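I have been asked to look over a protein record a colleague put together. Alongside the sequence sits a line of tokens, each denoting a local backbone shape. Please read both lines and tell me whether the tokens look consistent with the sequence. Take the sequence as given and treat only the tokens as open to question. I have pasted the whole thing underneath without changing anything:
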Amino acid sequence: MQTITLTVNGAPVTLTVDSRTLLVQVLRDMLALTGTHVGCDTSQCGACTVHVDGEAVKSCAILAVQADGAIVTTIEGIGTAEHLHAMQAAFREHHGLQCGFCTPGMIMAGLDMVRRHGPSLDEPTVRAELEGNICRCTGYHNIVLAIMAGARAMAAIPVAAE
């Protein structure tokens, strides 16, 4: 057993975990952040995508002890039901979901695309970047539209002065 400290969705967390515990297990089972889904257990589907120190990672492919000291953001940390994040609102507006199982991972992947490529995402870039995220319901068309719209909406949000 090992003690780890994380900042999850802005809150400090200290936990004792087995060295074999996956980050997704900590999030879902120990912290009850069930928006991070487990779709395949082999890091193929992207349903478990979260941000670790600002970068998208598949939380089923990283041990919790590897994230010790990290800042972790899950789907629960980017918006609320009353105040959706611009990317979440774009998924709703463009119906970028059907069953919704893959949606949290798709949104977190979309946010990472914006971080790396900026708000002017084009369809070929989004489609290429989604290669590691699987949706079993749709043809991805509305997901791609939602990510591009979310990126544009994020660019339109004024940044607060520091």
Q: What stands out?
A: The CA atoms of residues 7 and 71 lie 5 Å apart. The mean pLDDT is 93. The beta strands are 2-8, 11-17, 49-52, 55-58, 71-73. The chain has five helices and five strands.
